[in-house]
């Protein structure tokens, strides 16, 4: 083993004697030169550290209801899904979160990051995307800055002509999985259709007692994701809702929710094609915001210090 102090890296000499008596010597680097090592370290993604970034950003989001229902809209304390998208450039990945009002989800969102600029891979842009499933307007602030005037969810839940929700919670989950499996969707990326894949498990199951929750007027519910890689592009809110006011009968309803800026095609079994308008912005039900932070890819300091605490 030799060490070349002028470059401080190690190499191994391979000596081969050829039949004529000539000797060949090949040097094989066992470690990269320091500059290359440092460059690789700067490009490496520390999944755990970046998960802390996403959780910290999510915890700083303040969503306030506007309307008669003034119950607090609160972040669930852990990410429901960690995802990545192999199709998009820039090593796009992030975490998916849910905000509740009472027992029912009011907002779903993702905090994510990607290489920016993509060619260098030494800094990453932090972004966020949201969809409201709330039945009244709300405002979203990040670090006391108003980012989004979220309207009430526009599209009414679609009633499905299916057997009524079963009595037991475990059986209702089977029904909801069957409903989600009957939804087919695709995006259009650079004019090429991309079929979306359903995650078999819901990304969130409503935390309701066995008999449902009177305050949320929901017997049961779950949120399913159709994905590219593991990146949610379309969400399905599947719920067991009362069929009419004053009745104790429940039926299954589904609400498709856009979670991408790409064109979407959606078809629901027994219903047909569903239009999911390509709309986003500060007054739309779907909202995304890029450039919340721009951070070094290699997070060398604590997340609090990196984010400016």
Parts with pLDDT < 50 across at least 5 consecutive residues: 1-32
Number of domains: 2
Beta strand count: 22
**First-to-last CA distance:** 47 Å
Helix content estimate = 10-25%
Largest sheet: 6 strands, antiparallel
Structure classification: mainly beta
General shape = globular
Strand content: over 45%
Rg, Cα atoms, Å:
25 Å
Overall average pLDDT: 83
Tally of contiguous helical segments: 4
Any chance you could write out the topology, listing elements then pairs?
Blueprint: E1 2-4, E2 9-17, E3 23-29, H1 34-43, H2 47-59, E4 61-65, E5 73-75, E6 81-85, E7 92-101, E8 104-115, E9 123-132, E10 138-142, E11 145-150, E12 158-159, H3 169-181, E13 183-189, E14 192-195, E15 197-198, E16 204-205, E17 220-228, E18 231-242, E19 250-258, E20 264-268, E21 272-274, E22 286-296, H4 303-306
Antiparallel strand pairs: 1-2, 2-3, 4-10, 5-7, 6-7, 7-8, 8-9, 9-22, 10-11, 12-19, 13-14, 13-20, 15-17, 16-17, 17-18, 18-19, 20-21
Mind explaining what this structure looks like?
By secondary structure, the protein is mainly beta. The protein folds into two domains: 2-31, no CATH class; 40-306, no CATH class. It contains four helices and 22 strands. It has helices spanning 34-43, 47-59, 169-181, 303-306; strands at 2-4, 9-17, 23-29, 61-65, 73-75, 81-85, 92-101, 104-115, 123-132, 138-142, 145-150, 158-159, 183-189, 192-195, 197-198, 204-205, 220-228, 231-242, 250-258, 264-268, 272-274, 286-296. The strands form five sheets. Strands 5, 6, 7, 8, 9 and 22 form a six-stranded antiparallel sheet that branches. Strands 12, 15, 16, 17, 18 and 19 form a six-stranded antiparallel sheet that branches. Strand 13 and strand 14 (192-195) form a beta hairpin. The two termini are 47 Å apart.
């Amino acid at each position: 083993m030799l060490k070349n102090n002028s470059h401080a890296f190690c190499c191994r000499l391979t000596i081969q004697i050829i039949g004529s008596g000539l000797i060949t010597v090949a040097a094989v680097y066992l470690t990269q030169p320091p500059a290359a090592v440092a460059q690789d370290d700067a490009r490496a993604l520390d999944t755990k550290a970046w998960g802390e970034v996403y959780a910290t950003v999510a915890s700083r989001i303040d969503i306030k209801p506007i309307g008669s229902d003034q119950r607090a809209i609160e972040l669930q304390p852990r990410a429901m899904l960690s995802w990545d998208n192999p199709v998009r450039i820039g090593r796009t990945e992030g975490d998916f979160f849910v905000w509740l009002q009472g027992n029912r989800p009011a907002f779903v969102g993702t905090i994510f990051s990607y290489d920016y600029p993509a060619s260098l891979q030494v800094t990453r842009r932090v972004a966020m995307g949201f969809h409201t499933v709330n039945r009244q307007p709300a405002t979203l602030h990040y670090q006391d800055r108003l980012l989004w005037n979220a309207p009430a969810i526009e599209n009414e839940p679609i009633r499905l002509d299916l057997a009524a929700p079963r009595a037991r919670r475990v059986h209702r989950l089977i029904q909801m999985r069957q409903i989600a499996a009957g939804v087919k969707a695709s995006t259009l990326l650079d004019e090429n259709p991309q079929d979306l894949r359903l995650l078999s498990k819901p990304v969130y199951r409503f935390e309701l007692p066995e008999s449902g929750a009177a305050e949320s007027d929901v017997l049961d519910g779950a949120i399913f994701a159709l994905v590219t890689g593991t990146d949610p592009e379309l969400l399905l809110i599947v719920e067991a809702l009362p069929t009419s006011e004053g009745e104790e009968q429940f039926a299954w309803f589904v609400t498709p929710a856009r979670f991408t800026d790409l064109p979407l095609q959606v078809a629901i079994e027994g219903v047909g094609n569903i239009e999911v308008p390509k709309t986003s912005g500060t007054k739309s039900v779907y909202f995304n915001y890029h450039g919340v932070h721009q951070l070094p890819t290699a997070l060398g300091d604590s997340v609090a210090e990196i984010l400016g605490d």
